[in-house]
Amino acid sequence: MHQCLALASGDLQQAECRRLSLELDSFAAEVRACRICVENPVGRPLPHEPRPVLRPSSSARILIASQAPGTKVHLSGMPFTDASGDRLRSWLGVSTDEFYDIEKFAIVPMGFCFPGQDAKGGDLPPRRECAPAWRAPLMALMPRIDLVLTIGIYAQSWHMGAARRPSLTETVMDWRAIWENSVGAKVLPLPHPSWRNSGWLKQNPWFEMDLLPFLRSEIRYRLG
Q: Which regions form coiled coils (predicted)?
């Protein structure tokens, strides 16, 4: 709320900032109490107690549209408190304090709860209940977002629609056209920063040479 109030020039704007922030706080509390995936699931119910993890913001300009919490995040209740978070912060060129500054970054995954693991120990896809129930109203309560970082195919499908290419690699490779053709908030597609994608990074050196410098400059521009 503080940054929003600092930017508001008049009493009416400040009142609107307060209203929006309070409305978002109330709505986020509803999300954190959500139990759809166990009480009215699509397919099999969540195999453990729900613990939705998200950090929406009415003042942030940057949205990290990620996939779903992993095991460590499920335990901590804070997004990206794991090796993936370390790599993502390195990609963005930001400190831990900057990353968790609610006035700078909103973090809203496609699935809010840890979805469980498959037989090979990999995380399952985000739960299908979350986005239809919550995502559009959450986005409407974050009007200052002007940069959306779509991490993985699920976020890219929701935020990019027909602009998403057939594969993640093709989508990320086409980042310049996606950026230029973004309507409203700028969108930049990213792979997941998981250690499981280390091979992908080695096979696609252009990501670190071309996309990351551009990404860091856009992040720094918005952080001031």
A: none
Compute φ and ψ for 134, nearest 5 degrees: -125, -25
Show Cβ contacts of residue 146 under 8 Å, excluding neighbours closer than 6 positions.
61, 185, 186, 222
Give, to the nearest 10 degrees, the angle between helix 212-223 and helix 83-92. Answer: 80
134 near 31, Cβ under 8 Å?
Answer: yes
pTM reported for the whole predicted model: 0.93
Fold of 2-223: Uracil-DNA Glycosylase, subunit E (3.40.470)
Q: pLDDT at position 109, please?
A: 98
Q: pLDDT for 64-121, tens place per residue?
A: 999 999 999 999 999 999 999 999 999 999 999 999 999 999 999 999 999 999 988 8
Compute the distance between CA of residue 34 and CA of residue 46 in angstroms, rounded to an integer: 12
Domain ranges (residues) in the chain: 2-223
Half-sphere exposure of 123 (CA within 13 A, CB side): 20
CB 54 within 8 A of CB 109: yes
* d(C-alpha 90, C-alpha 83), whole Å: 11
Three-class secondary structure of residue 45 per DSSP: coil
